[in-house]
Each structure stands twice: as structure tokens, then as C-alpha cells.
Amino acid sequence: xxxxxxxxxxxxxxxxxxxxxxxxxxxxxxxxxxxxxxxxxxxxxxxxxxxxxxxxxxxxxxxxxxxxxxxxxxxxxxxxxxxxxxxxxxxxxxxxxxxxxxxxxxxxxxxxxxxxxxxxxxxxxxxxxxxxxxxxxxxxxxxxxxxxxxxxxxxxx
Length: 157
Known about the structure:
Layout: H1 4-32, H2 41-57, H3 68-75, H4 86-103, H5 110-122, H6 129-144
Helix pairs in contact: 1-2, 1-3, 2-4, 3-5, 4-5, 4-6
């Protein structure tokens, strides 16, 4: 039996998915350029790799292009992001998204979690990734105590 065939099909499928992710990231440039934010192909590839690494480390599977482009569009108008910190911030936000998705036991929709990240990052966290991670862990604790996402307080404890 030739086991390499299955591996190569898996590799081809992963490459196709990566291509879709990279394309969706690069398409965001059309809108983010308005805010002075543009990603190169190399940066888009690095973000796709961060997505893959984060999915693996969180033992998650995602079909299609995923949420990276949604994160980009949600955060591109942030007063705390500029071209110099744009890529690094996106890497951190991708990791934060998937970690929080796991830690909330998938009880928060992707769109609600992205809205939370945007509101917290621009609001009480003032662009600090450390504070955003803390706020994300507070949200996870809130959800794991069987409380509703809608009842979570962004400001204070």
C-alpha cells in the first residue's frame, strides 16, 4: 500500500487552503490602504503560517480561508495600529483569537469574538496586547462559569 498518496493529497489540500488565506489577506489591502496599512505577499504568507501554527497548537481545524481577513478588517481603523506595528499586531491578534476561541469552549461565535477583540483592543486595553490577553482570559473564565457572553463587562472586573 502506498501511504504517500494520502500525505500528498493532504499537503495539496493544505496548500490550496493557504493560498485562499493569503489571497483573502492581500485582498484586504484594497480597504486597509485607506488607513495607511498594506501587507506584502511575504507578510501575508507569514500571517497564514501563524494561523496554521495557532490552529495546530490549539488542536483546531478550520475550513476555507478562516477569520484572518475578518480580523484585519475589524482592526484596521484602530488608532493603535500603524504600518510599523501592523504585521506584528496581526500575528498577536490571530494567536489571541484562536486561544480565546478554545478557552471559551467555542461558546462565542467568530463574529462576536472578533467584535470583542476590536472593542477591548481599542477600548479598555488601549492597544496593549498584554491587556487584551488578560481581558480574553477574563472572558474565558466568565464563559466557563456558564455566564452569557452578552453579560461580560469590558471595563473593570
